[in-house]
Every structure is written in structure tokens, then in C-alpha cells.
């Protein structure tokens, strides 16, 4: 048997160009000598343009990153770093794990080998799994609290009704009415915190019919100060879902956007397909990605991670229940709501799987 030709450069090139990690080699000035296919895709640059270009002119990152690369080249101090945020000059940002090693070859100038792995997808999957488990844990907690609260409330209400029948003075009925009214209010609050109890009644629908219904309702509530922008992909297939539940979920988010804008600004409904998309630990062949985008002041950083919890609100007069209900409604459709926000741009992304068959991602396939 002929041994595998390891020294054959063309074979090595084929191997390196077909691995998923980005591989670059640099000279002492941190100019690119080689970049594989994965590196071209990650850095949005062709090999022809990249070779001879300084890495400093391709990515924007803290100067300490380049200092460490220079130290590795000069002193042969290999190192690695996790979850480094970098930015291309095009404005695209992503997070990487990387390692740097000095390559020493007798009779030839040293080279610096950098291996880069984009971990945005892994971070997103972990974040989505956390959102799903967070919602499930919250629902379980609220169910337990609801049981503990509603039982004594029922007894309190019943006792107030009995007391009302025994009062000698009809004017005292005012006090029992207050007790009964507050007991009912607390019971209704607990029911609202529990969110939807009815299973979806799915049928084939067009997602744009749902968003248009929400837009019409929201436009009436918002008045003329809010401009609604539609950025729809008309090629999206029909979705098997409960239209009433989706209208409620999207309307809750849209109402929050209207309040954040204080009746002046833009709200965009944007739809796009996502193929082979992961939600939590499940990969779906096709997913509808619906985004509700507003140009308001944004959500405070101390709230952004907790906004889907019940009773969490950025407004003094808010109940903090709407987003939790929306998450529950979308979860019932095997979907998920995510949020990202900065001043001038808040995006709520609703992910709804279209395929009926999906498969669990196991181990490294995540």
C-alpha cells in the first residue's frame, strides 16, 4: 500500500481548506501569508486580497491582541484566548476562540500560525437553552405559588361573603366588598402570571396575515406618530400555528415598542426564512424569523437579561406580564423569542419552526 503523501503540499492544502476552523499564517509584521477557505468566509475577504495585507487592517480589536501575537512570534510563547469579541471594518461583529503558535523552520523565516473558531453559534445555542429552561423554571415556580396563593384567597373571599350576610348595618357592606374585590383582583393577577393554559388550535396560516392584523390594531392604538414599516419576504411558506395566540404574542411586543417610542418613531416588521436553524437543542429544517424592530431609547442593561420573567418591567406603571405571556405562547409553538437592544435600536426576534420533523442535536453537532 502506498503511504499517504503527507509531504504533498496540494493534499495539505485540500485538508486545511476543508476544515471548519479558520487558519492563517503571518510574518513578523503580522501580514497575512496564507488564509484557508474558512478564514476567507469568517473575515469576509478573499485569499487574493488578504495575502500581504496586515491583520491590523482587517480586524478591529484591542491593541493587546496584536501585542500578544508579536510576543508569540518573537519569543515563541504560544497562547490561546476564549470569547474574544472582534469587529471587521465592514461593521460585522462576532466572538471567537483562537490560539497562536510560532512556526520555526530551519533556514526559513519564522511564521505565526493562528487558528480561529467562531463561537457565536455555540453562544447563541447556550443562550437559547437558558431562555427555554428559564421560562420552564419560572412556569413551575408560578404554578406552585399560584396554588399556595389561590387557596387562601378563596377562603378569604368566602369568609367575606359569609360576613357580609351577617352584618347588621348595610353600610358596612362597603368593607366586605373591598375584601371580595381585592381577592378577585389578586386571583386574576395570578391567572395572568400563569399565562396561556389553552393548547394552540393550529391551522395553516400566512405569517403576514398575522403581522398585518397586529399592525392594524397597533396603528389604531398608536395614532399617527408611529410609522410602521413592512419588510416582508413574500416567499415564506404557510405556517401551522394558532393565529390568535400569535397575534397576542406579537401585539404584546408591539405595544411595548409603542410605549417606548412615546408615540413618535418607527416600528419595523421584518420576516426572513432561516434554514437548518437551531432553537435550543433542536435543529429545524426551516424556521420563520420575525423581527419587531423599534428605534426607541432601548432597554436598560440591567433589565435585558430578565425581561421575560413575570413582573419585570422598565415602566413604573407596567405589569411586567406581557413579554412573559408572549414567550409562553411562542414556546407552545416550539419557538422562542429573543431580544437585543441598544440606544436607538431594539430587536425582538420570534423564531417559529416550519417543519414538522426535527432532530435533536447531540454532542459536538451543536
How would you describe the overall organization of this protein?
There is one protein chain. By secondary structure, the chain is α+β, with helices and mostly antiparallel strands. The chain has 3 domains: 9-118, PAS domain (Beta-Lactamase, 2-Layer Sandwich), CATH 3.30.450; 123-194; 203-365, 2-Layer Sandwich (Heat Shock Protein 90), CATH 3.30.565.10. Helix content is 41%, strand content 27%. The protein has 10 helices and 14 strands. The strands form 3 sheets. Strands 2-1-6-5-4-3 form a 6-stranded antiparallel sheet. A hairpin with a 2-residue loop joins strand 12 (336-342) and strand 13 (345-353). The longest helix has 47 residues, at 120-166. The protein is elongated. The chain starts with 8 loop residues before the first helix and ends in a 6-residue tail after the last strand. Mean pLDDT is 81; it is low at 1-8 and 357-366.
Key structural traits:
single chain, 366 residues, alpha+beta, Beta-Lactamase, Heat Shock Protein 90, 3 domains, 6-stranded antiparallel sheet, 6-stranded mixed sheet, elongated, disordered N terminus, disordered C terminus
The biggest beta sheet reads: 6 strands, antiparallel
Number of domains: 3
Q: Which class do the helix and strand fractions yield? A: alpha+beta
* Helical content (DSSP H or I, runs of 4+): 40-55%
Would you summarize the structure shown here?
This protein has helices spanning 9-17, 37-43, 47-50, 63-75, 120-166, 173-194, 207-222, 243-261, 301-304, 322-331; strands spanning 22-26, 32-35, 59-60, 79-88, 93-103, 111-118, 203-205, 226-231, 239-241, 265-279, 282-294, 336-342, 345-353, 358-360. With 366 residues, it is α+β, with helices and mostly antiparallel strands.
Amino acid at each position: 500500500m502506498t503511504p499517504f503523501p503527507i509531504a504533498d503540499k496540494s493534499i495539505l492544502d485540500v485538508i486545511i481548506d476543508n476544515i471548519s476552523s479558520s487558519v492563517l499564517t503571518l510574518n513578523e509584521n503580522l501580514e497575512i501569508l496564507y488564509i484557508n477557505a474558512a478564514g476567507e468566509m469568517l473575515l469576509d475577504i478573499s485569499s487574493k486580497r488578504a495575502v500581504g495585507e496586515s491583520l491590523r487592517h482587517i480586524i478591529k480589536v484591542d491593541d493587546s491582541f496584536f501585542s500578544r501575537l508579536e510576543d508569540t512570534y518573537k519569543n515563541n510563547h504560544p497562547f490561546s484566548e476564549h470569547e474574544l469579541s472582534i469587529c471587521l471594518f465592514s461593521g460585522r461583529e462576532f466572538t471567537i476562540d483562537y490560539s497562536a503558535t510560532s512556526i520555526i523552520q530551519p533556514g526559513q523565516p519564522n511564521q505565526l500560525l493562528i487558528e480561529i473558531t467562531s463561537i457565536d453559534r455555540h453562544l447563541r445555542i447556550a443562550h437559547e437553552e437558558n431562555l427555554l429552561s428559564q421560562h420552564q423554571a419560572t412556569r413551575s415556580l408560578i404554578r406552585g405559588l399560584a396554588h399556595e396563593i389561590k387557596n387562601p384567597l378563596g377562603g378569604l373571599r368566602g369568609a367575606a361573603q359569609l360576613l357580609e350576610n351577617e352584618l347588621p348595618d348595610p353600610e358596612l357592606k362597603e368593607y366586605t366588598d373591598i375584601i371580595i374585590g381585592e381577592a378577585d383582583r389578586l386571583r386574576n393577577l395570578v391567572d395572568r402570571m400563569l399565562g396561556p393554559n389553552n393548547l394552540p388550535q393550529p391551522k395553516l396560516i400566512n405569517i403576514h396575515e398575522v403581522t398585518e392584523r397586529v399592525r392594524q390594531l397597533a396603528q389604531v392604538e398608536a395614532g399617527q406618530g408611529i410609522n410602521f414599516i413592512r419588510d416582508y419576504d413574500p416567499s415564506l411558506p404557510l405556517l401551522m400555528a394558532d393565529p390568535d395566540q400569535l397575534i397576542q404574542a406579537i401585539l404584546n411586543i408591539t405595544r411595548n415598542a409603542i410605549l417606548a417610542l412615546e408615540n413618535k418613531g418607527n416600528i419595523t416588521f421584518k420576516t426572513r426564512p432561516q434554514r437548518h436553524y437551531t432553537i435550543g437543542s433542536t435543529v429545524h429544517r426551516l424556521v420563520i424569523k420575525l423581527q419587531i424592530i423599534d428605534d426607541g431609547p432601548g432597554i436598560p442593561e440591567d433589565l435585558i437579561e430578565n425581561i421575560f420573567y413575570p413582573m419585570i418591567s422598565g415602566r413604573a406603571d407596567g405589569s411586567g406580564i406581557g413579554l412573559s405571556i408572549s414567550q409562553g405562547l411562542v414556546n407552545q409553538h416550539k419557538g422562542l423569542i429573543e431580544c437585543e437592544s441598544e440606544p436607538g435600536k431594539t430587536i425582538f426576534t420570534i423564531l417559529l419552526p416550519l417543519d414538522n420533523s426535527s432532530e435533536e442535536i447531540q454532542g459536538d453537532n451543536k
